[in-house]
Structures are given as C-alpha cells and as structure tokens.
TrEMBL record, chain A:
Signal peptide interval: none
Role noted for this protein: F(1)F(0) ATP synthase produces ATP from ADP in the presence of a proton or sodium gradient. F-type ATPases consist of two structural domains, F(1) containing the extramembraneous catalytic core and F(0) containing the membrane proton channel, linked together by a central stalk and a peripheral stalk. During catalysis, ATP synthesis in the catalytic domain of F(1) is coupled via a rotary mechanism of the central stalk subunits to proton translocation. Component of the F(0) channel, it forms part of the peripheral stalk, linking F(1) to F(0).
Membrane topology designation: Single-pass membrane protein
Transmembrane segments: 12-34
Cell membrane keyword on record: yes
UniProt-annotated location(s): Cell membrane; Endomembrane system
Name by which UniProt lists this protein: ATP synthase subunit b
Keyword Transmembrane helix among record annotations: yes
Keywords on record: ATP synthesis, Cell membrane, CF(0), Coiled coil, Hydrogen ion transport, Ion transport, Membrane, Transmembrane, Transmembrane helix, Transport
Pfam families: ATP-synt_B
Domain of life: Bacteria
Stored HAMAP family: ATP_synth_b_bprime (MF_01398)
From TrEMBL, chain B:
UniProt source species: Candidatus Terrybacteria bacterium RIFCSPLOWO2_01_FULL_40_23
UniProt protein name: ATP synthase subunit a
GO biological process: proton motive force-driven plasma membrane ATP synthesis
NCBIfam families found in the cross-reference section: ATP_synt_6_or_A
Its biological purpose: Key component of the proton channel; it plays a direct role in the translocation of protons across the membrane.
Pfam families referenced in this protein's UniProt entry, alphabetically: ATP-synt_A
Domain of life: Bacteria
Main location: membrane
Similarity-based family: Belongs to the ATPase A chain family.
Amino acid sequence: MSELLTKLGIDWHLFLAQVVNFGILAFLLHRFLYKPMLKILSERSAKAKEVVEGAASMAQAKRDLEQEIVETRNKARKEADEILVEGQKKAEIIRAGVIAQLEKELVLLKNKALAEIEKERAKAMNEAKNELASTVILAAEKVLAREVKNEDSIKLAQEALSKVKE
Amino acid sequence: MHISIAAEKLFNIFGFPVTNSLLMSWLAIIILISVAVYFKRTASSVPGKFQSLLEMVFEALLNLIDSITQDRKKSEKFLPLVLTIFLFVIVANWISLVPGVGSIGLNTEDGFLPLFRPTNTDLNNTLALAVIAVVSAHFFGLKALGIKKHIGKFLNFKGPIDFFVGLLEAVGEVSRILSFSFRLFGNMFAGEVLLLVLAGLVPFLVPIPFLGFELFVGFIQALVFAMLTLVFLTIATAEHH
C-alpha cells in the first residue's frame, strides 16, 4: 500500500498543504469576492425591485388619475348639459317676459299715437273750421260789397257752418 | 521526454517538500486572490468592464447552483465551497497551458526537472479536493439533518436490506473520493501527456488544436467537479422520505 502511494506520488505533507491552501483560498475568496459580490447583487436586486414597485404604483396612480379625469369630465359634461337646459329654460322665460313687456309697450305706444292723431285731427278740424269761416266771410263781403257788421258776420258764419254740416 | 506520475520535488522548506505542482497551485491561488482583492478595492454599485465581467460569470454560476439546490439560501451556503473548487480547478488547468509549464526546468543528475507542473496532474491536489468535497458534504449533512438522521443513512438496522443498503452507501462515500480524485487527475494527466508527446513529435502548429481542446477539457473538468460536489452537498442536506 505504502509503495503504491509512493508510486502515485501521494505524500501526506503535500496532501495537507493542498487542503490548507484550499481552505485559505476559500476563506479569502469568500471575504474579498463572494461576500461583496452577493452584497452588490442583492442591493441591485432590491433597488430593481423598488423601481419595479415604484413603476407599478405610478402606473396605478396614472390609472386612478385617468379614471378621475374621465369621471370629472363626465360630471362636467353632465353639469354643462344641466346648465344649458336651465339656461334655455330661463332664456325662454326671459324671452316670454320681454315679448309680453314689448307687446304691452307697443299697445301703450299705439294708444298714445292714436290719441295724438285724434288730438291733431281735432286741432286741424278746428283750424280748418276757423279758416273756412274767414274765407266764407270774405267771400260774402265781396258778394255783398259791403262791410259786414259784427252781427251779420256771426249770422253768416252760423249759416255757412250749418250748410257745411249738412 | 520526461513523464512521471508523481510530482517532482524542487526543494525543502524546514523539511517540508515543495513540488513543482505545489508551486503551480500557489500561482493559481495568487492569481485568484489578486483578482478578488482587486475586485474588493474597485467594487462599486455602478460596475466597470472588469466588475461587469466578474458579475456576469458570478451570476451565471449562482443561477446554475440555484437550479440544482432550488433554494437561494442553500446556494449561498454552498457557494464558497463550490465556486472555489470551480475557480481553483479551472485557473489551475488553464495556467497549465501557458508555454513554459513543463518545458522550463533544470538539468540535474537525475535528468530534466521541470519547474512547473500542472496542479491537477498531482494526485495530492485532486485527492485533497475530493476529500474536502466529501467531508464538506458530511459536515453540511450533519448540520442540516442532525447526527441521528445523517448517520442513519449508513448504519441502518431496520432490516437486512436496509443494513446492506447503508453499507453500500458507506462504501460509495469512499469510492466517491477515489472517483473524484482520479477523474480529474486522469483527465488532466492524460491531456498533459498528449500535449507533451505531440510537442515532441510535431512541435509546430499541430499542438494548437489540442491546446484548444485542453482549454475545453479544463473547463469541463472544473464544472464537473464543482457540480458533482454541489449535487452531493444537496443530497446530503436533503431529508429522506
């Protein structure tokens, strides 16, 4: 057995040295390579997870905001429709009131104008009467060729007027 | 042409023999520790090219370990052992292909004495790795299952068949050490001999494809050793139903 081990080159000194060497190597690699590497990777993974979660919550917030915008828009549209309907109703009422007022004013103006016309007509009639009386008197004076006395002129005028009335 | 199964002794330090393969293993260890220390010094949350490369390799190996253990906590527990085996074996295998290894040496009275010899062509190293792997599997098994359950895998008195199965398991543990150590030793030694013979026969161009092939073999052997260790660790810590 011993001869076989010697032929194979197995020496317990060297075997032990390789075990110790490997132990030292494993310890140093663990300390200087594996540990820091695992730390970096876990930190990066945590950061990535955080970013992903942040992105997910932002996406959720975006969805919520979009939903809110849609709801607000619908509400605003509904309110606008209501305001429009209300406005149309009020406008209708105002229009009806204005028309009624205008009609009333129109009637008043018409009546006033009619009264004015009547007044003007009566005035014109009176003036025409007086003008006519003067003309008749002048014509009668010329016919009679004499000065008509005051009593005569009154009498003539009355006669003329009664004729005109007839 | 000098071919020897045993590593050649270069000198003694206080009675401790220093062989050419031990020298190469120190070189591999120095390279790995230098890389680790450089990483530790320059590591930042925003990685540079060197750190990115290391992170990429590390993450790929960690994911591979995860795929076997199916448990990140277990992976992180086994990582120092499994990854150190992988890195040590692959670096030791690859630096063995550097020109000068096996060809630079001293002419002594006993003949040519190479200064460097591939680490894994020395059974002391492969045996040490195998023993570490198997002992670690038992250590983690004991820690995870407790003494009774773990020893119960090998000493089972529930019946003659169970007893025999337990015995086979115990024999399997010993043969595992042998298969582990001789697989790596055999592959690397054969590769080294092949390269040596080829370089002796046709020194130019012809060895180049074989060097590439040895790079691949070096990687595969490191991966096989590390993954088998991981599988044994996982099995040792798993509950039997």
